[in-house]
């Protein structure tokens, strides 16, 4: 029974660890973030992101929705320029699911069982969102989110992108998180 509980806990841990987005942010401590109220997307930076144009649109839409919810507005003459950068890599996890039993400790000629391996492969994606002060042309805040990308269908992909962006943008502005 203990082994069954351990297997269930391990399975749940793996499932939840794959679905989470790990987020960190960094910012210029000398900046007064309350002065920024408008934004626009920095086309030169976004064009360099190594994802499809459709995914760029999804990311930008998600960023815009999150910033509008926070009271920002999109503008032709913005305070902030928003840029993105992406990375991805393949993750492979191999698990040995040994199940062996016998009649005692140590060497046992009646020791038998089975061994099978489970191989999980997924894409680990990282999204960088940069906030650039337009007037000074300086990076003032950067949010980074990493996690497994689930791309089984378009709806799941869009949901996952929204999840990434929401978690990253939730750490902005830094002065409100203290």
Tags for this model:
Double Stranded RNA Binding Domain, alpha/beta, elongated, 31% helix, 4 helices, six-stranded mixed sheet, 6 strands, 178 residues
By secondary-structure content and strand pairing, the structural class works out as alpha/beta
Question: What's the CATH topology label?
Answer: Double Stranded RNA Binding Domain
What's the helix-strand series? Answer: HEEHHEEEEH
- Work out the radius of gyration: 23 Å
What is the count of distinct domains? Answer: 1
* Helical segment count: 4
How is the secondary structure organized here?
Blueprint: H1 2-19, E1 22-27, E2 38-41, H2 43-47, H3 53-69, E3 73-74, E4 80-101, E5 112-133, E6 138-149, H4 154-169
Parallel strand pairs: 2-3, 2-4
Antiparallel strand pairs: 1-6, 4-5, 5-6
Q: How would you describe this structure to a colleague?
A:
There is one protein chain. This protein is an alpha/beta fold and 178 residues long. The chain has one domain: Double Stranded RNA Binding Domain (2-Layer Sandwich). The protein has 4 helices and 6 strands. Strands 1-6-5-4-2-3 form a 6-stranded mixed sheet. β5 and β6 form a beta hairpin. α3 crosses α4 (154-169). The radius of gyration is 23 Å and the shape is elongated.
Short description:
31% of the residues lie in helices and 38% in strands. By secondary structure, it is α/β, with parallel strands linked by helices.
